[in-house]
Amino acid sequence: MKRDNSNNVSVIIPTYNRCKILYKVLIALERQTIDKYRFEVLIIDDGSTDETAQMVKEFLISSKLNIRYFFQENKKQGAARNLGIEYAEMPIIIFIGDDIVPSPHFIESHLIFHRSLEEPNKSCVIGYTTWHKDIKVTPFMKYIGEFGHQFGYSLIEGIGPLRFNFYYTSNLLIPTSLLKTLEHVFDEDFDVYGWEDIELGYRLEKLGTKLFYNRDGVAYHHHPVSVSSFCRRQQNVGRASNIFLKKHPELEWFLGDKAILENNAKQYFKAVIYKNIVNLVDNLFSIPVSHNIYKFILDTHYAKAAFY
To answer: What are the residues facing 13 on neighbouring strands?
Structure first.
């Protein structure tokens, strides 16, 4: 009897120099509760210089996963995901990161939730990503994981529909047919980190696509960050915001009022002092500070790169 593949999945993982963590991701995919014939794994190596290729080759010897490995010169995450979409063979795509370790019920939960929606063919789903138990989670990491600078799960009420800014490609299901309707999927003009997933979400929203939140689609982020490292990330996001604005000037309100950005940028040196102090107390003593202070530090680093 011919198998029904209407709910089969292509899991797309862009990766860059994270061989050891990627191995944990693959082990977690081997432990999924759905049959292995129900999903394929596409690893898109974005120019890694570590042991990624060798690790995948050795992993394939004993694994029953349907893994396909592709290598490209370093073109950033958007281009890597686009290559994965090009070769995906299943009607549903799930994007995860190379540091996102899925729970055992991850794929199954997403499929059950997606099928329960009124119009699954016009609907996307994000899951819940929290910190991995093997890493030390500081107060700052808890903040960015819940209140919007990395993820904004504490800002979500119900299951949606959600706005385009919740398209988190670290844990995102999209019907392949939706992506095929687009002239392009991830915009490869984004040559620094940030906004390429939100930009895609905005175009999908304009086409009538709805985004929902599956709280049970749990995955674990295996990537410790500090206040200092996340501020560097915020500066990249600020630079990328200018690329986003050129493409969608109608969303200037969403990226931040120019007067507020300019005022924030002028406080950059004060924010650097705050950053160094908060980074110290967060890493060494795990002492939380107010959300307003976290927000000031991160918003100022964003504004400095966005405005100047």
So the answer is: 43
Residue range(s) of every CATH 3.90.550.10 domain in the chain? 9-221
Distance, C-alpha 18 to centroid of its chain: 15
- Please choose, from the candidates 182, 198, 181, the residue with its C-alpha nearest in 3D space to the C-alpha of residue 190: 198
Give per-residue pLDDT as tens, 194-220: 789 999 999 999 999 999 999 999 999
Distance (Å, whole) CA 260 – CA 240: 18
- H-helix or E-strand spanning residue 113: helix 106-116
Q: What is the pTM of this model?
A: 0.94
Angle 46-51-52 (CA atoms, 0-180°, nearest 5)?
40
Secondary structure class of 214 (helix, strand, coil): strand
Locate 187 and state its tokens. Answer: 């915009």
**Beta-sheet pairing, 66-72 with 39-46:** parallel
| pLDDT digits 0-9 by tens, 99-125 | 999 999 999 999 999 999 999 999 999
Nearest-angstrom CA–CA distance, 199 and 237: 13
3-state SS record for 236-252: HHHHHHHHHHHHCHHHH
Residue 151, amino acid? F
Q: 63: phi > 0 → left, psi -120 to 50 → alpha, else beta; which? A: beta
pLDDT tens-digit map of 78-99: 999 999 999 999 999 999 999 9
User: CATH top-level class for 9-221?
Assistant: alpha beta
Segments of the chain assigned E as strands: 9-15, 39-46, 66-72, 92-96, 100-102, 123-131, 171-175, 210-221
- Give me the sheet containing 9-15, strands edge to edge: 66-72, 39-46, 9-15, 92-96, 171-175, 123-131, 210-221, 100-102
Q: Which residue has the tokens 């596409």?
A: 42
